[in-house]
Amino acid sequence: MKLNEQEITNALCLNMAQRKQLNPSQVEVVLMWDEDLGFSAEVFAEGRNQILIEANIHEALMQFLAQQQIRVFREQIRLELEDEIVAYISE
């Protein structure tokens, strides 16, 4: 299974909205990749920003897929940089 950048962003918005008890539309997410630091995301909510590391992205994806009745473990998720940031979920 492959998730595109929009699906990853949606998963992070839902995850952060739930954590902060906000509406997902109140959360903005920007995915990032850095040669030294790898994958991360910057989250904007309630006038504040927060940087999430790759482990946080994996957690959000696991929760997002669980809501769709798909059980995934962290080891099954691989983020890659193509034309956009994508997530591959192995079986």
Give the SSE map.
Blueprint: E1 2-3, H1 5-20, E2 27-34, E3 38-45, E4 48-53, H2 54-66, E5 77-81, E6 85-89
Helix pairs in contact: 1-2
- The count of DSSP E runs of length 2 or more, i.e. the number of strands, is 6
Low-confidence stretches: none
What does the main sheet amount to?
Answer: 3 strands, antiparallel
Give me the strand/helix succession: EHEEEHEE
Short description:
It contains two helices and six strands.
Can you walk through the features of this model?
Helix content is about 30%, strand content about 35%. A hairpin with a 3-residue loop joins strand 5 and strand 6. The longest helix is centred in the N-terminal third of the chain and has 16 residues, at about 5-20. It is α+β, with helices and mostly antiparallel strands and about 90 residues long. The protein has helices spanning about 5-20, 55-65, and strands at about 1-5, 25-35, 40-45, 50-55, 75-80, 85-90. It has a three-stranded antiparallel β-sheet with strand order 1-6-5. Helix 1 (about 5-20) packs across helix 2 (about 55-65). It has one domain (about 1-90). It has two helices and six strands, in the order βαβββαββ.
